[in-house]
């Protein structure tokens, strides 16, 4: 019995946590202290905070992976959720390992906007597109994150003659089309943008660089 108890403890999953970007929410964990064997499998359950019964996640029942997609199961974005994982190895089951409470609306990271650059001779025109959630409208298009949050865009310009880190904030606001004027012809400029959520005081990562020579 003691040996079994040791095995149970040593295979118990560690660091069970939700990772979420634009409401694409996955549960992640790490294997227990014991060296993971090929026959170690994991079982995932989830529930809304306050509910008494846990639901099995069928796609993540007896899997070898350390990640489980719970995007559809956490679609009520203002509800708090829990996930939990247990392991089985050599016919022995560990206890459940519980995640922290996860509220998608509060905790998801927002992605950067998509940036398209159209240039004329002394100005750059940018078109910004908000990141999209995984959830769909009735017609099938994905709902943009602007439906869920009051988002601002921050646009930075990098003059390639200067230092790469020298990003200058040239715009902050809600416009989807922005014109940056009074630029020097023949100079290469790069633009990056971020999404900012004032209510949560949180910024996205930078978008990928879009460069152009005027």
Automatic annotation (TrEMBL):
Its main location: secreted. Keywords: Disulfide bond, Receptor, Repeat, Secreted, Signal. One of its GO terms (cellular component) is extracellular region. Residues 12-107 form the Fibronectin type-III domain. It comes from the Eukaryota. It is found in: Secreted. The keyword Secreted applies. GO terms for molecular function: cytokine receptor activity. Belongs to the type II cytokine receptor family. Receptor for IL22. Binds to IL22, prevents interaction with the functional IL-22R complex and blocks the activity of IL22 (in vitro). May play an important role as an IL22 antagonist in the regulation of inflammatory responses. This is Interleukin-22 receptor subunit alpha-2. It comes from Nyctibius bracteatus. The gene is Il22ra2.
């Amino acid at each position: 019995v003691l040996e079994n108890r040791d095995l149970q403890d040593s295979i118990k999953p560690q660091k069970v946590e939700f990772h979420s970007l634009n409401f694409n929410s996955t549960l992640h964990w790490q294997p227990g202290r014991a060296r993971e064997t090929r026959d170690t499998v994991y079982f995932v359950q989830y529930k809304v905070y306050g509910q008494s019964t846990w639901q099995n996640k069928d796609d993540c029942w007896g899997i070898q992976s350390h990640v489980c997609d719970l995007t559809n199961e956490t679609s009520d974005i203002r509800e708090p959720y829990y996930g939990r994982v247990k392991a089985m190895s050599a016919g022995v089951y560990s206890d459940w390992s519980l995640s922290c409470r996860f509220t998608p609306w509060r905790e998801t990271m927002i992605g950067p906007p998509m940036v398209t650059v159209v240039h004329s001779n002394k100005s750059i025109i940018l078109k910004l597109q908000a990141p999209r959630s995984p959830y769909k409208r009735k017609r099938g298009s994905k709902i943009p994150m602007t439906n869920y949050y009051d988002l601002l865009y921050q646009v930075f310009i990098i003059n390639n003659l200067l230092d790469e880190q020298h990003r200058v904030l040239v715009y902050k606001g809600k416009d989807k089309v922005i014109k940056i004027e009074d630029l020097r012809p023949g100079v290469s400029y790069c633009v990056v943008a971020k999404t900012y959520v004032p209510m949560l005081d949180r910024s996205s990562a930078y978008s990928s660089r879009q460069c152009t020579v005027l």
